[in-house]
């Protein structure tokens, strides 16, 4: 069973990360048709900007959670396939002294 992790760019410029066991194009159609109420329902139309496919659902769930925790800049680097930038975007900035 293949599972796809995907990122959508919403009409308001925000990103939505999800996963699906069905064809990703069908899932994007569901988002755009308003089949389900949720984050994208009021942010249509949405555009598919990134996908990764996994053989095991547990791996896809872990990846979805990881991406959801990322900053906007880090998600945009992933979408642009700028893998070299990802480690630097993971580092926290300098800690200010109190």
Automatic annotation (TrEMBL):
Q: Which residues form the GIY-YIG domain?
A: 1-77
Q: Extract the Pfam families matched here.
A: GIY-YIG (PF01541)
Q: Which family does it belong to?
A: Belongs to the UPF0213 family.
Name the chain's protein.
Answer: GIY-YIG domain-containing protein
Taxonomic lineage is:
Bacteria, Pseudomonadati, Pseudomonadota, Alphaproteobacteria, Hyphomicrobiales
